[in-house]
Amino acid sequence: MELTQLVEQIRRKKSFLCIGLDVDLKKLPTHLLETKDPVFEFNKAIIDATHHLAVALKPNIAFYEALGIKGWESLKKTIDYINEHYPELFTIADAKRGDIGNTSTMYAKAFFEDLNFDSVTVAPYMGRDSVEPFLAFKDRHTILLSLTSNPGAFDFQTKEYAAKPLYQNVLETSKNYVNSENLMYVIGATKAEYLKDIRAIVPESFLLVPGVGAQGGSLKEVCKYGLNDNVGLLVNSSRGILYASKGKDFAEKAAEKAKDLQLQMASFL
Amino acid sequence: MELTQLVEQIRRKKSFLCIGLDVDLKKLPTHLLETKDPVFEFNKAIIDATHHLAVALKPNIAFYEALGIKGWESLKKTIDYINEHYPELFTIADAKRGDIGNTSTMYAKAFFEDLNFDSVTVAPYMGRDSVEPFLAFKDRHTILLSLTSNPGAFDFQTKEYAAKPLYQNVLETSKNYVNSENLMYVIGATKAEYLKDIRAIVPESFLLVPGVGAQGGSLKEVCKYGLNDNVGLLVNSSRGILYASKGKDFAEKAAEKAKDLQLQMASFL
């Protein structure tokens, strides 16, 4: 997908909501467990109920891998369903991949070619030749971890490094990678106070912001410093939407939660 | 697997060779392409021919993911074959995973429970709560990226950070993680000159060393500073062994290359 299509969709829907599909069998409505593929049935219902409120969907790959081959099949059916029925939705494989050059090329093929995602999240630790193989795919996007939403972010990312915090070095260095126009960044909502510095380094990039909801980040704070002329934000919510109800009304309740967030977002646009 | 079993195996075989199963369909012997599962048939033949020369096997997960569900099936068959026929071999899922706590738990389940690997490689960028969920599994091992073998390692890992290179901070910080006795580290063979400093920080840890062979690292240099009282090294070779021949003799030629490396290793023990 081209970025202009994503921006157009955000303006039309008045939403920059990304829904994280972190599907945990233990949390699914019990009536779905009797179906042949509960994970896919759950995703399908959530997607059908929320597609007009969200602009992006983000399956968290770990939750599918933990189910083995069956999980990989549910993932494939989910992404195929999105691409067939809602091709306007921006899809994110939340996979946190990254390895030496020829191996990163294989991961890029897995997510961009075999599964046909619009984007994938990538860890920066291994540097340039671990990221550029992803960037080489036209109209596909690489979302690099910069400042994550979890407590462990303080172990390395925020510490001083060459007179700057490491996460700022990741932003500055990656701007010089070949095809860096295909880069976006993960910035945790729980670190909203850092967004002013971040926007000084990457004023135009899209930021994928997890951590609103279960992790405690504030949408208002994120918007205050994070919005740019193209909106430039995708704010993710997973558990807060997916598990709003464990009954037969789970999709309806999920849509209500998504609508709440969409309305808040509309007020900032 | 307990570490004492790994060390005993190394002493008995006079080898600390790890064979990387980076299986690329384009490089397989052509006669295998007619079989139902060429990737598994290739792995099976390589494993049967080399199991007495190596102590560890390391499927590179990207190469399987790039083949979609079929690749995931080949991976499952490969690990099951190893665990059934050669349970003494230490198995490494080279996956470079790492995410916020509940997601890392899912990745750990995928590799330690569903696939039953002895160990998995993990990226440190997200810090403590992205690593500890892996460490929580008894007699399973987490191999943390510290100083990788690729050129991109110089982007962040070797740069000064809190008055030390970042990779040293990763070693020092991770030593304090809960269950850090289950930690090993990836140290690229192309960075052998750094091993003296590394051994000063983690004298007892096992190091997984890729980069001998195709990437140009020297086994002699690695051994000079890397060996400890328990050997403490697993040296990986992938392409140099797997693709020694494209003919029907591919497994025999792979065993010859493995034997060459094993004999060199024996001379350092």
From TrEMBL, chains A, B:
Q: For this chain's UniProt record, which GO biological process terms are given?
A: 'de novo' pyrimidine nucleobase biosynthetic process; 'de novo' UMP biosynthetic process
Bilayer-crossing residues are none
A GO molecular function annotation here is:
orotidine-5'-phosphate decarboxylase activity
The keyword Magnesium appears for this protein = no
InterPro entries named in the record: Aldolase_TIM, OMPdecase_type-2, OMPdeCOase_dom, RibuloseP-bd_barrel
Q: Does the keyword Oxidoreductase apply?
A: no
Give EC number(s), comma-separated: 4.1.1.23
Q: Which reaction does it catalyse?
A: orotidine 5'-phosphate + H(+) = UMP + CO2
Name the UniProt key words of this record, in alphabetical order.
Answer: Decarboxylase, Lyase, Pyrimidine biosynthesis
Q: Which residues form the active site?
A: K96 (proton donor)
Q: In which pathway does it act?
A: Pyrimidine metabolism; UMP biosynthesis via de novo pathway; UMP from orotate: step 2/2
**What top-level branch of life does the organism fall under?**
Bacteria
Q: Where is the Orotidine 5'-phosphate decarboxylase domain?
A: 16-254
Matching entries from CDD domains are given as: OMP_decarboxylase_like
Q: Which leading EC class covers this enzyme?
A: lyase
Q: So what family is this one in?
A: Belongs to the OMP decarboxylase family. Type 2 subfamily.
Q: What HAMAP family does the record point to?
A: OMPdecase_type2
Q: What is this protein's name?
A: Orotidine 5'-phosphate decarboxylase
Q: Report the source organism.
A: Galbibacter marinus
Q: What is the lineage of its organism?
A: Bacteria, Pseudomonadati, Bacteroidota, Flavobacteriia, Flavobacteriales
